[in-house]
Amino acid sequence: MMSTISQRQPASLRVLIVGFLICWMLAAAFPFFWTLWGSFKVEGDFFSKANWANAILGVLTESETGNTFTGVAYEGAWVQEQFWRATLNTALVCLFVVTISLTLGTLGGYALSRSNERYTFWLLIIALIFRAMPPITLVSGYLPVFFQWNLWGHLPTAIIVLVAINQPFTLWMLHSFFKNIPQDLDESAMVDGCNRFQAFRRVIIPVMWPGVITTGLFSFLLAYNDFAVTAMILSKENQTMVPKIASFLGTTQTKGNVMFAVASVVSVTAPLFMLIMFFQRQIVSGLTAGAVKG
Question: Cys-Cys with 45: which of 41, 62, 155, 253 at CB 3.0–4.6 Å?
Answer without folding.
Answer: 41
